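Record type: ASSEMBLY
Status: queued
Input:
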Amino acid sequence: MRFTEKLAARWREADTLLCVGLDPDPNRFPAPLRDRDDAIFAFCRAIVDATAEFACAFKPQIAYFASHRAEDQLENLLAHIRSAHPQVPVILDAKRGDIGSTAEHYAREAFERYGADAVTLSPYMGLDSIEPFLEYTDRGVFLLCRTSNPGGNDLQMLDVGGVHLYEHVARLAASQWNTNGQLGLVVGATYPNELARVRALAGELPLLVPGIGAQGGDVQAAVQAGRTARGDGLAINSSRAILYAGHGEDFAAAAHEAARRTRDEINRHRRR
Amino acid sequence: MRFTEKLAARWREADTLLCVGLDPDPNRFPAPLRDRDDAIFAFCRAIVDATAEFACAFKPQIAYFASHRAEDQLENLLAHIRSAHPQVPVILDAKRGDIGSTAEHYAREAFERYGADAVTLSPYMGLDSIEPFLEYTDRGVFLLCRTSNPGGNDLQMLDVGGVHLYEHVARLAASQWNTNGQLGLVVGATYPNELARVRALAGELPLLVPGIGAQGGDVQAAVQAGRTARGDGLAINSSRAILYAGHGEDFAAAAHEAARRTRDEINRHRRR
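Status: finished
Output:
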């Protein structure tokens, strides 16, 4: 099954558009976990098990593992998800981008070493920097399009012949670059007008939408701007608001409740 | 000492603009090394020791380590360079790009975990994605500008109000974005006309120039297009042509000779 089909199946079968972002920060872990050698794995596994029923995808952010020399814990976490929650795809948030043989090595890192279902990439180096990833035909690629940060304006809002650069990227991803139906786009919830514009340009492409919660994006606006006619097409990411919903021994139960509430809030706006 | 000063000191004192790229591929290692558990470290250490006298910088490409689960060998390699060749700065080629707290984690990975002197980043997400790296005031950042691959055309050659996108990036890097003199740019040797244009726009900014050798860029054209009035300003990268100059037990001696020849070829065109 292709990644985009696996994600669509999960939207339908679990009735959720919530992507649970895994940005583990040991300083925010509950005290009993903090001293474990495998604290990052143990924390994330507890979150994953507590939230899987509400998740259309998990999105580990690789920087949080790499800055702590915890690549082995990321490997173990993805192995756990494949084994315990095989129906929930994993999007490795790595924002890679490089050429030729180097891109092949990054693809091997994401898809073979970690076994991710999809990866985030930067479009700046062009189609040939993406092709080595697309050769894994059952996997997916989310290209950065309109990112959720204010600095996203610096390049993405430049006028490139009557459209903004992010619109040009959305068009490429929905046409010439999408040779095998493997592409999606990253569009921040903080810019609902641009999210609506990307949906208009990109047809049914899956959109990975960060920026609700701590970054201030509004769930209702994001869902109404980004949904397809079918009321799906979105993986709306929440990280900190779920991971750190509780700070004591009940952190997993608190994450469960936060994920359920967020899933429900998203669903309230899907079909109107 | 700031990174840009360290690099400039090395240009002067060692009379070289050659950057030795470390893209280790175990399939191409000489047979006696291949079976060692630390083959990647051992190979790169031998290359580093054989070429340091001709190098203005070393540029390890992190994907080659990550795809082989060899982050520990990359750590050991950078520790070895700091100890044995402290005057040669290390540019970690990672092409990262992310926002806020995630960028902080990538900066910690590059500058604290690996102890790199500089890192390559993508400009697509804007200035606020670069700032967490610039907070390490003694380190440097090379922003992707005009990359050496054909697909670089896809976005970088778009017209953004009378200039190409890569020219716009060069201007930003030479002005508003370069708040503390820490920035450089990545410009491929395969496009000498654009390299000359970047030099005209970017003043004395250091340019990291991949693309000679295996990718077909011409050394004379690149040096003449990219040099400053002082005859420096460039870190011209060669990876495969040096790493795999020899295939037997004499690989380090062959790399030594290849690095010397490349350094000399670059120098022949610096001051004309």
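Annotation: Strands of chain A lie at 18-22, 57-60, 91-96, 118-121, 140-146, 183-187, 207-209, 234-238.
Annotation: The CA atoms of residues 146 and 194 of chain A lie 7 Å apart.
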